[in-house]
Amino acid sequence: MIGEFAARVQKGLEELERERFEAAEQNFRAALAMNPRDDQLLHLLGISQLRQGRGEEAVKSVQRAISLTKRKADYHNTLGCALRDVGRVDEAIGCFERALKLAPDVADARFNFGQALLQARRYAEAQALFGKLLAANPIDLEALAGLAHAKWIGGDFASAVAVMRDGIARVPENRYMRFTLSELLLALGDFENGWREYLERPSRALMLVEAERRNDDASELARLPAQLDGRTFKLHCEQGLGDELFFLRFGAELRARGASRIEVAVDPRLMGMVARSGIADDCVERSPRRLHEPQWLLAGDLPYLLGSNAQNLPPPLRLDPLQDRLAEIGSKLEGLARPLIGLTWRAGTPPKPGGLPLSFRELPPDAFAEFAARLPGTLIVLQRNPRPAELERISSCAPGRLEDFSMLNDDLEGMLALLAQVDEYVGVSNTNMYLYAGVGRPGKVLVPSDIEFRWMAKGAQSPWFPGFRVYRPGPERDWSAVYDEVLRDFSSSRANEDRTERDIPLEDAR
Predict the structure, then answer these.
(1) What is the C-alpha to C-alpha distance for residues 197 and 178, in angstroms, rounded to an integer?
(2) 450 and 385 in one domain?
(3) Based on the domain organization, do 336 and 249 belong to the same domain?
(4) d(Cα 197, Cα 183) in Å, to the nearest integer?
(5) 251 in the same domain as 333
């Protein structure tokens, strides 16, 4: 019995270290069945649930651990992260404060405290806290990023850039900081400097190392000439699905400059639609193995190599759905009340405890459900891995009007066919938004995070996605005002459609 208990705990810890969180949870549960009052196991169970995005369950597990022993700072820190993730920010702040009373020097708790202060719109306090962390450790990278984030959220864009530049001066070799700076600059429209810093993105370096290829020094990358005189280009994608679609648009500029042949290596889930787009003469599956050949360029380098600027931004890659998939999906949409409105409320990877949520986008779930219920027609769920409680919440707010098509996130050809037939798409930026742009439809993008260069730092339009409407909560994070604005735009567009229909002469209508 003792041996089995120890083996389960050890296996759970190993799975947690490998970021196999479901397997870790199973082992911790098995160990808890043998010793249900083990506070450390309850804490570990909570961590594994939190890392799977199941914040409410994590809250309960860690609260049970704390009920058994109240004086462990890391328990209060984890509980604060779980509460923060489910939107209970004031309670989270209290947890971080208790953690710091128990252990004033726990850096994770101080950092998470700062993040919770940002969510609570207590920007001055967050900046002061990150400033104290930097005073104690001037090369605390997370504190530097946190301070820049705090200033950015508060609308002080210039100061955010200055903080990141200062951090890079202190730790020039850190690629994460240079990548963050690139996104800040690009969001502000400084394409020249932004694309130069984007060459330092960690995914680029990782891909080249994995390919056992020398990490190309950015200073050695020569810009491409205005005339390419029949050259052949091989483009290898190295980021997420949305990024692959975003950067392949630059292949059109290669053609315009005279490239005679373009080969691309993409994620296999995109191969068919990219091949049909006409952007490439040959489309193959991406693999680090291909990068052994130096003629392969990384697609994310193209904006820098082409000298992309505000005057020559290429449009989104045009994508054509398969006719048989259009018919198949269309049959499932028959009889549903129009308009069909796609919904997405979360994207990206949740941050680890102590990490910045820069690549994670999530809308407050209850307020989003109430907003969705005010939309007309049928609500089409496009969210990847929606939680049952989220679907239940939206369905209870809009009974009989919810249709779940989330399974098509594992069938992108099906998703493309669906997106070509929905009437509107409202949600956060994700791969499906890029697909929606690919079928020539303009979506309504809700920008909950604060550094999304594809949607810029401010304004209602993005030069990268013509026709899309961008909505931002601003420093006050007032989503109710954003949702009211979206609904007004819906009412206005529907009124215009009705007016247009009335203005069509009878003979034309026939």
Answers:
(1) 6
(2) yes
(3) no
(4) 9
(5) no
Identity of residue 374: R
Residues in the chain: 510
pTM, two decimal places = 0.84
Nearest to 102 by CA among 54, 70, 131, 129: 70
CATH of the domain at 290: 3.40.50
Name 334's Cβ contacts closer than 8 Å, sequence gap at least 6: none
Q: Of 428, 412, 267, 434, which Cα lies nearest the Cα of 359?
A: 428
Q: Residue 12 and residue 173: Cα distance in Å, rounded?
A: 35
Helix (H) or strand (E) holding 16: helix 2-17
What tokens appear for 313 in the block?
Answer: 């931004």
- Report the sign of the C-alpha dihedral through residues 242, 409, 388, 26, in that order: negative
Q: At 398, which amino acid appears?
A: A
Domain count of the chain? Answer: 3
* Edge-to-edge strand ranges of the sheet holding 340-344: 402-404, 378-381, 340-344, 424-427, 444-446, 469-471
Domain of 344 in residue numbering reads as 326-501
The DSSP bridge partners found for residue 425 are 342
Tokens of 212: 């056992």
> How far is residue 390's CA from residue 127's CA, in Å, rounded to a whole number?
33
Angle at 237 (CA atoms; ends 234, 243), nearest 5 degrees: 135
CA count, 13 A, side-chain hemisphere, 153: 26
The packing angle between helices 21-34 and 39-51, to 10°, is 160
3-state secondary structure 378-442: EEEECCCCCCHHHHHHHHHHCCCCEEECHHHHHCHHHHHHHHCCCCEEEECCCHHHHHHHHCCCC
If one counts every other C-beta atom within 10 angstroms of the C-beta of residue 4, the result is 11
291-325, pLDDT tens digit by residue? 888 889 999 999 999 999 877 899 999 999 999 99
Q: How far apart are CA 389 and CA 365, in angstroms?
A: 10
Q: What gap in Å lies between CA 233 and CA 117, rounded to an integer?
A: 48
Question: Could you check whether the bond before residue 268 is cis, i.e. omega within 30 degrees of 0?
Answer: no
In a domain, 261, yes or no: yes
Per-residue tokens: 311: 């005057």
Task: Kindly state the tokens that stand for 63.
Answer: 């609260």
Q: Which residues contact 309 (CB under 8 A, 6 or more apart)?
A: 191, 192
- CB of 58 closer than 8 Å to CB of 49: yes
For residue range 101-159, list pLDDT tens digits in order: 999 877 788 888 988 888 888 888 999 988 888 888 888 888 888 899 888 888 899 99
Is residue 185 within 8 Å of 194, Cβ to Cβ?
Answer: yes
In terms of domains, do 5 and 105 share one?
Answer: yes
Mind listing the pLDDT tens digit for each residue in 355-378?
A: 444 567 888 888 999 999 999 999
Contact 357, 383 (CB under 8 A): no
Q: What is the CATH number of the domain that holds 15?
A: 1.25.40.10
